[in-house]
Amino acid sequence: MSAQLNRFILVMAAGALVVLTMATPAGAVFDPIATEPVAPYAQPVDASVPKRGCTTTPADPKNTTGSTPAVQVIYAWHDGNGNNYEAYVERIAKIVDRMDWLLDESTNYDQHIKTSCRTGYDTSTYSGYAHALVIPEKIELADPAAENPPEVMADDLAAAGYDDANRKYVVFEDFDGTGTAHCGPVCVATADEWDSGTMMHELIHLHNVDHAKVTEVPDTLAVNDVMSSQYNDWQVDQEFNNYYDPSEVSALFYTSNHPSTNKVNLAAYPQFTTPICCDVGYSNDLLTAQERTIEAQAPYSFPTGFSVSGGGWMQITPPGADNQVSARYYDGRRSLTMNVQAHAEGFLSITRRPAVTAGQRYKFFTRLTTGASGDVKLRLSWYNGSNSLISTSDSSLYALTSDWQEYNVSAIAPSGTATVQLSVVSPSGQNFAYLTDSWQLNHCNNGKTVDGCRIDG
């Protein structure tokens, strides 16, 4: 399956979720081994990829009723290409280990994939672990010379007895197949191009996550795929506001444009372990889901968690139809409007002040746009344990545009700091309105990106 040909189609029909990826054209030389994604930083070499291990090991992998929900790994073969299980079993296990690694390394939360193994193998050795984890299954293709629909894989596994509702089946196809997420009668994530980005992408789809199609343009799809991808990026929802938030597993996020009402949080799904704070990972955030997404209970209601002082007043936008640009942005629905008034400097702030550590670096992000013209700057206000202001750290003065742009300010918390307040500041003498969404406060602790905080993108 050529990466250049790869594209995704979401189909909802008869209660079944199908996400298809264009596969290798019929007649092409088949090779299942693909290239691992490397951004935002390179994965470890094969020898140092952490071993996931087995979460559960039922005596019969076809009868797992009552066992913990988990992912079952299948090697699918067909007579046309032969059974190459012994040649590939350890390679497949290594890809599953990488899938688990990229989930854990995406954030500063410890979270892993629950995997199901079978008994009868010494899992203290890597070979034994791989054989216990990966189960071979012969697939009867409807047409061996052509791509087969995902229903063939699901139906074949169900007929073979792999049909437990508490299993998600990750299927490595050793023939010309499709990169697919499909539920009905069982849930399968398949690929004939084997790498951790592709398989994690399809596994995420099985948890009712779309491609997080939210943009600043109404009813259009995001150009860049924000999910884990085999092309380059492997991180899972770096801003905790599309579909994955390990810091608040009760928080839910829209995954598609209006009028869809589907909300999910991948971090809460039972095939993953409970996320535990805090370890070292690519993305982290010190704000709540409400503060990041500015999602009010109803249009025009007062935005919980935000406050204004000085020249200006705020409202949830838009004063108009729900399909307008201002109606929704990064979380798929509502943004916040600040109506700037000329008589004084205006401050739009998150009311709560997150706890921080003196001497460490923090970075504040937000997205801003205006339909007029005006200038703002971002501010970090540092407070001590007695709630007295120590100092402030400001960004440059930004001239806002009609495009949604991400702006940020980064600084080291001064001596004596206990908390920080985030604000967008508008200098006096201006009369205009700007919109804001997607706030984020990173603790620059991971040391894996250029400046210790997540890379813009």
Q: What features would you describe in this structure?
A:
With 457 residues, the chain is an alpha+beta fold. Helix content is 12%, strand content 28%. The protein has helices at 85-105, 126-133, 150-159, 196-205, 289-293; strands at 8-13, 16-21, 70-77, 109-110, 115-116, 134-138, 167-173, 179-183, 187-191, 253-254, 263-264, 276-277, 306-310, 312-316, 336-340, 346-350, 361-370, 375-383, 389-394, 398-399, 405-412, 419-426, 432-443. 46% of the residues are buried.
Give short descriptive properties of this protein:
single chain, 457 residues, alpha+beta, Jelly Rolls, 2 domains, eight-stranded mixed sheet, six-stranded antiparallel sheet, 5 helices, 23 strands, disordered N terminus
